[in-house]
Amino acid sequence: MRYIWTIIWAFLISAALSYVLSSMGGGQFDLTGTLVFGAILSVFVFLFGEVVLKVDKSNSH
After folding, report:
1. Do residues 28 and 55 touch, judged by C-beta distance below 8 A?
2. First-to-last C-alpha distance (Å) of the chain
3. Cβ contacts of residue 7 below 8 Å, gap of 6+?
4. Which pLDDT score, from 0 to 100, does residue 8 have?
5. Which of 7, 26, 27, 38 is the least buried, fewest Cβ under 10 Å from its Cβ?
6. What is the mean pLDDT of the chain?
7. How far apart are the C-alpha atoms of 37 and 18, rounded to whole Å?
8. What is the C-alpha radius of gyration for the chain, rounded to an integer number of angstroms?
9. How many CA atoms lie within 13 A of 38 on its CB side?
10. Which of 19, 47, 52, 22 is nearest to 11 (CA)?
11. Selected residue with higher pLDDT from 61 and 8
């Protein structure tokens, strides 16, 4: 379930970020770029949660 919520939040945050940045730059909202960024963000969060945080917990005795 945590993977599903991570994907949903990653896409929502990337959509909001993409919309704001494209509006500030005077460009058009690009859904394809937003989906790609959301997928990259999801993978990064999965790796960060599984690798970095697990290593940090095991080192803090």
Report:
1. no
2. 29
3. 38, 42
4. 94
5. 26
6. 88
7. 9
8. 15
9. 22
10. 19
11. 8
